[in-house]
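Deliverable D4.2, example record:
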Amino acid sequence: MMNFHAPLNAVVVAYVSLAESSPIDDLGPFERIVSYIGVLALGWFFWRRETNRTDETVEDLKTENKLLRRDIKDLENLLRRDIKDLENDIRELLSNRQGKRYTLRSRDRSYFEDLDEEGLDDSPEDKE
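Output generated by the structure prediction step:
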């Protein structure tokens, strides 16, 4: 009857021998085979584990990339909307130059400003 710990001990001895770069002389043929199979199995296990981690990392990066692209699109849309709001505000200011009071339509807040008529006549077109 074979001892259960013998293959495990063989694997440990094989690892220690590999670490010390010394041959495995004190093992029988069966223990050598088991130790090599154990080394291969543990090596495969750790390689497979690292491969799975890499695949998960790639999937995480792809997901993060998609989220970042979506955020960039949202920011581009917000910037376009802000630019349109600013263009509308400028158009409104230019069209209401004769008025005393005007409102800037902005998504965030409204600005009120009193304009004096003397300040409006400073443009070179008006002086000619």
